[in-house]
Amino acid sequence: MVKRIILVTGPARSGKSEWAELLAEQSGKPVIYLATSHLDPDDPEWQGRIDRHRKRRLASWTTQEVPLELSAAILQETTSGNACCLLVDSLGTWVANLLAEDDPTWGAILEELIESLRGVKEGTVIFVAEETGWGVVPAYPMGRSFRDRLGDLVRRLGAIADPVYLVTGGHAVNLSAIGSVLPPSKTLED
């Protein structure tokens, strides 16, 4: 039994979702797309984004909408004895869905996700994550909380994923091949 965790990260509109979809297709395994977004029929622009993602997916792929219970979905699909490829798109949306949770609750949810990955028996899990900390510090508390939570999550996943890709400017760079994993963060202030 072989398990593989892959992280694809980068800025908005960089091509990270398309790169992750190509990796999923190339895995040779049945693909289950775990969509973390909430559908909002009152937001046509958001619906348009979701529709563009849907149109790119292969007809053979299964899609599950998992806006909150990501850890449970990962465990359910990866411990069933089927060697599948899970494509989680996106972690930024998932973090945003849970932003109202207080810090201790969020910490428990994050640990549950990391623990669910330790429980993966076989198959591939590909995560798509936005890089949000490359700009100014947000001027409002919720924005800072989002940036910090997503940054911490991406760093934690990057420490256990192999490979980790950075997609920017329409190019995918394998950071695992050219970089070194940092030791675990001592604080969330990094």
TrEMBL record:
Assigned keywords, A-Z: ATP-binding, Cobalamin biosynthesis, GTP-binding, Kinase, Nucleotide-binding, Nucleotidyltransferase, Transferase
Keyword set includes ATP-binding: yes
GO MF annotation terms: adenosylcobinamide kinase activity; cobinamide phosphate guanylyltransferase activity
Pfam family, one: CobU
Gene name per UniProt: cobU
EC numbers, comma separated: 2.7.1.156, 2.7.7.62
Pathway note: Cofactor biosynthesis; adenosylcobalamin biosynthesis; adenosylcobalamin from cob(II)yrinate a,c-diamide: step 6/7; Cofactor biosynthesis; adenosylcobalamin biosynthesis; adenosylcobalamin from cob(II)yrinate a,c-diamide: step 5/7
Superkingdom of this protein's organism: Bacteria
SUPFAM superfamilies cross-referenced by the UniProt entry: P-loop containing nucleoside triphosphate hydrolases
Entry coiled-coil feature ranges: none
Class of enzymatic activity (EC top level): transferase
InterPro entries: CobU/CobP, P-loop_NTPase
The protein, known as: Adenosylcobinamide kinase
Catalytic reactions of this protein: adenosylcob(III)inamide + ATP = adenosylcob(III)inamide phosphate + ADP + H(+); adenosylcob(III)inamide + GTP = adenosylcob(III)inamide phosphate + GDP + H(+); adenosylcob(III)inamide phosphate + GTP + H(+) = adenosylcob(III)inamide-GDP + diphosphate
Role played: Catalyzes ATP-dependent phosphorylation of adenosylcobinamide and addition of GMP to adenosylcobinamide phosphate.
Family membership noted in the UniProt record: Belongs to the CobU/CobP family.
